[in-house]
UniProtKB/TrEMBL annotation:
Transmembrane regions: 21-41, 78-102
Name this protein carries in UniProt: Uncharacterized protein
Assigned keywords, A-Z: Membrane, Transmembrane, Transmembrane helix
């Protein structure tokens, strides 16, 4: 009968161990995602001051906690436009890179 060397047996045992640990990690990760979704849906993370003051301030004034000027609104709009530009640029660069990569792999 054939008996594998010690290094082959250690490698086989280590590969089985890593495979099982990977599966356990995947199970734990999926359970964590489901738990986070349940907590989000149940309102567990809803601890904002504006949401907690709705009883004392009423529905009309509970969400007016920050009064901004027109200058602040203009700065926020510029920041949003800049962020949108950066996101679109990086996403386009990624799509172009993947397109180039797929083009070289298909030849």
């Amino acid at each position: 009968s054939y008996r594998a060397s010690l290094s082959a047996r250690v490698a086989l045992t280590f590969s089985h161990l890593l495979r099982r640990m990977g599966k356990l990690l995947a199970i734990a990760n999926s359970l964590w995602v489901v738990l986070a979704c349940i907590l989000q849906y149940s309102g567990f993370y809803n601890t904002c001051f504006c949401n907690s003051s709705i009883i004392s301030r009423g529905n009309a004034a509970a969400y007016i906690t920050i009064i901004e000027t027109t200058d602040q609104a203009a700065l926020a709009k510029v920041a949003w436009i800049g962020a949108l530009f950066l996101v679109c640029t990086s996403a386009s660069a990624f799509v172009a890179f993947v397109g180039l990569l797929l083009d070289t792999l298909s030849r």
